[in-house]
């Protein structure tokens, strides 16, 4: 009996050691950079400026670094492959507003190499530095030694509101064996499956990253997860993405047929969804026949807004699953119309085809579908989520009301001063 009891305890310990990890991730709500003057500017343009700022609408959570297990808050990004944090010797990082930096030292288990590295993002943002190797833990699991880009120069990253970014790509070309962080956790026995999944809700704190499995309570139908093979390029480096082929895109009574060369990714590091330019133009032209769209120029791009409360047709993406069955993923307008300061913007943009990725489906898409990224079978799964647009916070519209209230109070105060001054002059 004693041996049986010991065996049961061992099984329980193994089960706990290899259980999936659920990481609460926070949606960061955009903040005004100049609240006192925002009511003097065009409100539609302000809304777009917030929307396209890459650093203000992402989902972040905590990891621990080094022997000290110091906690850092990072954005989790399925569209890139590298973890980066700022160095203690980075003046531009301080200027860009980063508050926490990592001090790489032998005592903390960190080794700095002479390998240079950089990551560039849309809008001219970038980070540059050298690769370090450091023990990393997450939610008490680990550590596993991973490559870290220790940033020595930050470019256009003001307002990021996190300490850095963790790429969750297929491979890590800076790792000795090219093994990515999640896959390494699996290989070392910390999680039961070599996969991770995202559930993105509309609230500020109801989203989660699950490492080692899927939270079925976030699926509208737990029996329906359809997997799609990722397209392999034969390279075990950062060029290999979670890339899948698109069969068609449809809206209303129109459908655009695609080929196996028309590929895209599901990207947690992107707020909007981007679709190939020719498809986008056809879609916008169609929307103009069923609703009134207002164009809002933003640099070289143009956004479109609609009257808040407007319902537009679904935008449907069709992908072929691993069994050869076509699966339709319909994105309702309640998911792709984003309310910013009471300006309702279509959160889908055209994407100029300059690479093999022609469709980039960010948070707008991921709030509709739980996404699963599987290293063992090199596939990506999708399932309708339980996220509800009706639960989206209204903090931004409340903030706008506060602006106007402040403006009215200011005008009343100014009027009072003018009245007092005139009375004094008359005397």
- The CATH topology of the largest domain is given as Cathepsin D, subunit A, domain 1
Straight-line N-to-C gap? 104 Å
Strand order within the widest sheet? 2-3-8-4-7-6
Counted up, domains total 2
Molecular shape: globular
CATH superfamily of the largest domain: Acid Proteases
Give the DSSP E fraction (strand runs of 2 or more residues).
35-45%
Helical amount: 10-25%
Structural class: alpha+beta
Keywords: Aspartyl protease, Disulfide bond, Hydrolase, Membrane, Protease, Signal, Transmembrane, Transmembrane helix
Domain Peptidase A1: 59-383
InterPro entries: Aspartic_peptidase_A1, Aspartic_peptidase_AS, Pepsin-like_dom, PEPTIDASE_A1, Peptidase_aspartic_dom_sf
Active site: 77, 267
């Amino acid at each position: 009996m004693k041996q049986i009891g010991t065996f049961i305890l061992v099984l329980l310990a193994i089960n706990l050691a290899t259980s999936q990890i659920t990481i609460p991730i926070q949606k960061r709500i955009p903040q005004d950079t100049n609240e006192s003057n925002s009511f003097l500017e065009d409100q539609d343009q302000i809304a777009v400026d917030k929307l396209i700022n890459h650093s203000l609408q992402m989902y972040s959570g905590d990891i621990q670094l080094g022997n000290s297990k110091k906690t850092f808050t990072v954005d989790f990004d399925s569209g890139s492959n590298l973890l980066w944090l700022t160095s203690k010797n980075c003046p531009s990082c301080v200027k860009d507003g980063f508050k926490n930096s990592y001090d790489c030292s032998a005592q903390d288990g960190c080794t700095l190499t002479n390998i240079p590295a950089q990551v560039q993002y849309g809008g001219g943002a970038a980070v540059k530095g050298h690769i370090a190797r450091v023990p990393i833990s997450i939610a008490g699991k680990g550590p596993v030694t991973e490559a870290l880009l220790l940033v020595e120069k930050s470019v256009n990253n003001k307002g990021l509101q996190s300490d850095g970014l963790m790429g969750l790509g297929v491979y890590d070309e800076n790792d000795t064996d090219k093994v990515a962080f999640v896959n390494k956790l699996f290989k070392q026995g910390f999680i039961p499956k070599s996969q991770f999944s995202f559930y993105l809700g509309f609230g500020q704190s109801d989203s989660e990253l699950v490492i080692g499995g899927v939270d079925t309570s976030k699926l509208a139908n737990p029996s329906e997860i359809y997997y799609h093979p990722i397209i392999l390029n034969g390279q075990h480096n950062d060029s290999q993405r979670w890339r899948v082929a698109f069969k068609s895109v449809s809206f209303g009574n129109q459908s655009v047929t695609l080929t196996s060369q028309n590929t895209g990714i599901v990207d947690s590091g992107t707020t909007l969804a981007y679709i190939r330019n020719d498809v986008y133009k056809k879609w916008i032209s169609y929307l103009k026949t069923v609703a009134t769209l207002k164009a809002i120029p933003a640099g070289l791009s143009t956004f479109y807004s609609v009257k808040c409360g407007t319902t537009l047709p679904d935008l449907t993406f069709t992908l072929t699953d691993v069994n050869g069955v076509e699966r339709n993923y319909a994105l309702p307008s309640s998911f792709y119309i984003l309310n910013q300061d009471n300006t309702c913007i279509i959160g889908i943009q055209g994407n100029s085809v300059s690479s093999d990725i022609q469709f980039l489906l960010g948070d707008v898409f991921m709030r509709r579908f739980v996404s699963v990224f599987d290293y063992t079978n090199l596939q990506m799964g999708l399932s309708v989520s339980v996220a509800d647009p009706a639960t989206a916070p209204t903090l931004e519209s409340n903030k706008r009301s506060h602006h106007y209230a402040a403006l009215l109070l200011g005008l009343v105060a100014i009027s009072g001063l003018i009245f007092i001054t005139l009375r004094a002059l008359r005397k």
